[in-house]
Amino acid sequence: MKMIKAIIKPFKLEEVKAGLAEIGVEGMTVTEVKGFGRQKGHSEIYRGSEYTSELLPKLVLDICVPSDLADKVVDTIMKSAKTGKIGDGKIFVMPVDDVVRIRTGERGMSAL
Asked: Which SUPFAM superfamilies does the UniProt record give (predicted)?
């Protein structure tokens, strides 16, 4: 199993969800976060004053899938979340040793 952690722009969530649903991904956890990378924040003019925001709003998607589906999930996220501009995000893929469904005690693939 693999845990895929994707950091994306918030307005891309619906596109990513639709793409993942098409390939059979049934669940994910979405967290609202703030951060920066090479983008280094941005400046805005508000009521005549310049305001610099160093931390930009992003979403983190956590998706656990069977190992053989991981590459397809990564490709789908890349296609759905890409704008071609700086700050599109990153995708991390990590191994998962075990999963336990709390309600039933199921473990491994049956818990997904």
From this structure: GlnB-like
